[in-house]
Design goal:
Elements (H helix, E strand, L loop, with lengths): L8 H12 L4 E5 L8 E7 L2 E7 L5 E5 L14 E2 L3 E2 L6 E2 L5 E3 L17 E7 L2 E5 L7 H5 L1 H6 L8 E10 L3 H8 L5 H4 L1 H6 L6 E4 L3 E7 L17 E7 L3 E6 L2 E11 L2 E10 L4 H30 L14 H16 L1
Antiparallel strand pairs: 1-10, 2-3, 2-5, 3-4, 4-9, 6-7, 7-8, 9-10, 11-17, 12-13, 13-14, 14-15, 15-16, 16-17
């Protein structure tokens, strides 16, 4: 793609409108929102969102916006019996119905007309997603193939343990491009290169996602133990546009790549483990932190290179960068239409 697509504001605005406001966006693990009154706070393309566990333990999602004058209903994840605006105190029930409009007599304000604005929400593979479009697509029909590819693993049973977030001085697509190929691993990630069997590194393409996978070197792996060599693999799924699933023995790590400006993004790492053995968690997190710091360094350097006068359009390896081409083709089709 032309380098200006990675730093000009006008392209990010089209991406927000035509990609992020239309595609399913990962919010977090279902295990984080399982009791009635549990609330998850998030944001999608600058739109504040809350996901709320109902009294029957189903989920509803809304814009985190009071219908009085646009105030916030929640600043952080919590458990509550109702949602009260932090600005003027309007109160909403968990299902979004306006309960109390402080300062207004019911004769002049019909509460039925001022409920919270709902958005699409679903659960898939133990994770919660929202969709801000009027007619959300069926996430299962797009992604259920992933379950077949990792079988017999069932990561829906893995427990959420913690989140790490990283602010990175690069366009969100720079980060995605970097993740979508293992071509850079021997040069950027020397320790990771020892853990994986790089000679058997493979990329497979599907309509709405791609998969990179490879065997692991058992003696050097920072992950959990396995029963057979066939289970000792790493799976790296990229779901369009900005969701990453890193699956290793005993661990699921989800990444949400969130654009902040045309030259920056935030990446949220959510760690889920099959069991809570502290040594594995600490070892895994320490290794992941090393790899992430290496990725941040190269991505921020690439961002500078893309903005320099010394670069415009590069070339992709037909053997090693098919995942990047797949992703960029989807972006190109959308931005060209926009």
């Amino acid at each position: 793609m032309p380098s200006e697509w990675y730093f000009e504001n006008r392209f990010l605005e089209v991406e927000k409108r035509d990609i992020f406001l239309k595609e399913w966006q990962l919010i977090g693990s279902r295990s984080r929102i399982k009791k009635p009154g549990d609330v998850l706070v998030s944001e999608v393309a600058n739109n504040p969102i809350v996901v709320v566990c109902q009294h029957d333990k189903t989920l509803k999602a809304f814009y985190n916006v009071c219908q009085h004058r646009g105030g916030p209903l929640a600043y952080e994840n919590c458990n509550t019996n109702s949602l009260q605006c932090k600005y003027h105190g309007w109160v909403y029930k968990l299902d979004g119905e306006l309960k109390n409009a402080r300062g207004f007599d019911e004769s002049i304000l019909k509460k039925d007309n001022f409920g919270m604005v709902e958005v699409g929400v679903c659960e898939w593979m133990g994770q919660v997603f929202v969709n801000l479009s009027k007619n959300p697509n069926d996430i299962g029909s797009r992604l259920n193939k992933i379950k077949d590819l990792i079988a017999p693993l069932d990561v829906t049973q893995y427990k959420f343990v913690f989140r790490e977030s990283y602010e990175i001085a690069c366009n969100w697509k720079v980060y995605m491009d970097n993740f979508l190929e293992g071509f850079h691993i021997p040069f950027v990630h020397p320790k990771l290169n020892q853990v994986i069997d790089y000679k058997q590194y493979k990329t497979e393409l599907f309509k709405y996602f791609s998969l990179q996978w490879c065997p692991l070197e058992n003696d050097l792996s920072p992950y959990g133990s396995v029963k057979s060599a066939d289970e000792n693999k790493a799976y790296y799924f990229t779901i369009f546009p900005n969701i990453i699933l890193n699956i290793a023995p005993g661990r699921l790590q989800t990444n949400i790549v969130e654009p902040t400006t045309s030259r920056s993004c935030v990446v949220h790492f959510d760690y889920h483990f099959e069991n809570s053995e502290t040594s594995n968690i600490e070892k895994d997190a320490e290794f992941s932190e090393l790899v992430q710091r290496e990725d941040i360094q190269i991505c921020e350097s690439v961002q500078k290179g893309l903005e320099s006068q010394g670069y415009d359009v590069g070339r992709l390896s037909p053997e090693n960068e098919t995942g990047v081409y797949h992703f960029q083709s989807m972006i190109r089709n959308i931005l060209s239409d926009g």
